[in-house]
Amino acid sequence: MKLLLVDDHAVVREGVRRLLSMAVEAAVLEAATGRDALAVFKAEKPEVVILDLNLPGSGGLDLLRRLLIEDAKTKVLIFSMHTTPLYVARALQAGARGYVSKGAGAEELVEAIRCVIAGGRYVERDLASELAVNVLGSDDPGKALSARELDIMRLLAKGKGLSDIADALGISYKTAANTCTAIKHKLLVERTSDLIRVAVEMHAA
Fold it and tell me: Cα–Cα distance between 151 and 157 in angstroms, integer?
């Protein structure tokens, strides 16, 4: 079995690779960027990918989608510093088979990897309970947003630009831009075009 580890920190890759050498029988490939990961993936066809969300250039979620386009059967486990429930939900909705934070213990990471390799799904125990309460218990991602953030999403859905939004809400352009950035982090989208798409979906009749 081939396993691809994608993380831009060499020390993280080294630690996980050593852990994997003792826990599973697999050839461990490595990549530090999305571009390198995609090249290795196309050349080596690994069955399992352990993927960080914070990557230079294109983000981890974009890479996740591209990997699944290349091979829909690929098993991807997210291994990330992010513990916000909406981050977890976005990754799972995008096709990840599991999610473990970098704050999890080594035993749980190994358990998650073994579960995903076997064809199962795994979400870190502490994250799973929070996820159920805060995100998966509702079909509405907007419930995670503040009133102002919801107003901005409503205006984005109507095709308004940042200047128009600032004028409509009586706030500065900088505040509008910073709030959009905060919304992107909450909803785990990387481009303004993706944020507008989510806004339209949220406000579709």
Answer: 10
Q: Which domains does the chain have, with CATH numbers?
A: 2-136 (3.40.50.2300), 141-202 (1.10.10.10)
- pTM, two decimals, is 0.68
pLDDT score, position 188: 67
Place of tokens 């091979």: 71
Give the tens place of pLDDT for each residue, 120-151: 989 888 887 666 555 444 555 555 677 788 88
For the chain, the distance separating the N- and C-terminal CA atoms, rounded to the nearest angstrom, is 46
* CB distance 100 to 108 below 8 Å: yes
Q: What is the pLDDT of residue 85?
A: 77
From the list 56, 15, 64, the residue with the least C-alpha distance to 38 is 64
Which residues, 6+ apart, have CB-to-CB distance to 93 below 8 Å? none
Nearest to 122 by CA among 130, 113, 131: 113
DSSP per residue over 19-79, as a string? HHHHH---EEEEESSHHHHHHHHHHH--SEEEE-S--SSS-HHHHHHHHHHH-TT-EEEEE
Query: Cβ–Cβ contacts within 10 Å for residue 44, how many?
Result: 12
